[in-house]
C-alpha cells in the first residue's frame, strides 16, 4: 500500500494506516509541478538580486543583513547546524517519521521554494525508514519548531544520527551503506525545512490517535466495571441523552448499551438501588465530553497537517508572483488544541480511578471482597494498584497545566511571543501514557471483580474481551508483582490503538 501526498488532503486516519501497515509514500504529479514552479521563483529572486528574508538575508534579528551572492547555500547549512540545539530524550521513531511526512506534505503545497531534490530526499528517508534522531526539548513553538526540525534536516544532509533497522547510527554511515547521497541544501531550503510546526503537530497526531483509542477502550473497560457492580442501564436510555443534544454523549450511551446487551449482571432502577454513583451513571456525559475535545483537536490538527506554515511564502498569481513574510509558523492554534486534548485525556483517567476505587472498597463494591484479595489480611490483592492509579491521576493534574499560557521573548525581542505548543504535545503524551496505565489497572481489577459475580453472566461482547484479556493477565489467585500485569495490559491497549476502529469498538 502507498500513501499519496499532495499537500492538501492528508488525514489522521491516513497517518494511522501508514504507521500500522508500514506503507510507502508517493507524491502526486500535480504536487511535483507546484514544487517546481515555486522553486523557479527562488531562482528568479537570486538572479534578480532581490532582498527577500531568508533567501538573500539573515534570519531573526539578522533579517536586515544582506548575504553575499556566493554564500546563499552556505547560509542554509549554517542555519541548520546552529539551530540544532535540541536536548533530552529523542522523540519516538513514530513521531519522527510522521514529522518527515508532515514536512514533506507542506512543501508540496508549492509555497516554500524547495527543490525537487529535497522532496525526493524526504521521500527516500521516509520509504527507507531512515528516521532522524530528534531531541524532544528546545522548541518554543514559534518561529516554528526550529530546534527539532533542524535535527531532522541534519539527517538529510548526512549529519547527526538516525534510527535505522532498530539501531541508532550516524546518518552518513547509513547513506554510505545504501550508496545514497546526502542532500546539498540550496537557497531557502534550510528555512523551508525548519520554519513550521511539524514537531508539535506530529506528536499531536500520535497523541490524538492514542487518546481517541483510550476513549473507545474506556467504554468496554467501564462496561466490565458496570457489570461487576450490578450497574443500572436505565441511565443510558437514548431518550435521556437526546434530551441534552450533545451527539458525542448520545453516541457513548449507545455504545455502552451495545457493550452491555445480553448481560445478566446489569440491573434496572429500583431493582437493587434507585440510581448509581456518577462514575457509572454519568459515563456518557463524562466520556462524551472527552470525545467533544477529541473532535475539536482532530479538526485543528488536520488543518495544520495540510497547511503552508513556513516563512516567507511564495504565491503564484499567474501574472505575478508574490513572496510574503508572515507568521504561519506560529504554533498558537495547535498549542491551544493540544492543551485542550490534555483535559480530555485527564478526565478519562480521573473517572477510571474513581470506578476502580469502587471495585476495591468494601464500603462501595456491593459485597465483593476488600481489595478483591483472595485471602484478605494475608494477601493485599488490588490494594496498591489503586494507590498507583491515584498517583498517576494526580501527576496528570500537574501536567494538565496549559503550556500555551506561557511565552518568553527570543531573538533579541524580534520574536517576542511564542506558543510553547511542543511542550503541550510532550506533556500531553506523558498524560496519555499515565491514563492508559490507569485504564489498564481498572481492566485488571474489573476482570477479577466479574469473576466473583460469574463470568458466564457477562454480556457476550464483554465476555469476549474477558477471554482475550485473560491471555494477557491471569486471575489473581495470590499476590504477585502487579506492575508486570499493568505494563502488559497497557502495551496491549497501545498496540490496538493503531488497528482499525472496529478493534476498539
TrEMBL record:
The UniProt entry's coiled-coil ranges are none
Top EC category: lyase
Keywords, sorted A to Z = Cytoplasm, Histidine metabolism, Lyase
Q: Where is this cross-link: 5-imidazolinone (Ala-Gly)?
A: 142-144
GO molecular function, a single term: histidine ammonia-lyase activity
Describe how it is modified after translation. Contains an active site 4-methylidene-imidazol-5-one (MIO), which is formed autocatalytically by cyclization and dehydration of residues Ala-Ser-Gly.
> What EC number is given for this enzyme?
4.3.1.3
Record localization: Cytoplasm
Major location, coarse class?
Answer: cytoplasm
Q: Which Gene3D superfamilies does this UniProt record tie to the protein?
A: Fumarase/aspartase (Central domain), Fumarase/aspartase (N-terminal domain)
In this chain, where does the modification 2,3-didehydroalanine (Ser) occur?
143
- What's its catalytic activity? L-histidine = trans-urocanate + NH4(+)
* Pathway info: Amino-acid degradation; L-histidine degradation into L-glutamate; N-formimidoyl-L-glutamate from L-histidine: step 1/3
Q: What InterPro entries does the database record attribute to this sequence?
A: Aromatic_Lyase, Fumarase/histidase_N, HutH, L-Aspartase-like, Phe/His_NH3-lyase_AS
Highest rank taxon of the organism: Bacteria
GO annotation, cellular component aspect: cytoplasm
A GO BP term, please?
L-histidine catabolic process
Q: Which family does it belong to?
A: Belongs to the PAL/histidase family.
Identification of the protein by name: Histidine ammonia-lyase
What is the organism of origin for this protein? Staphylococcus pseudoxylosus
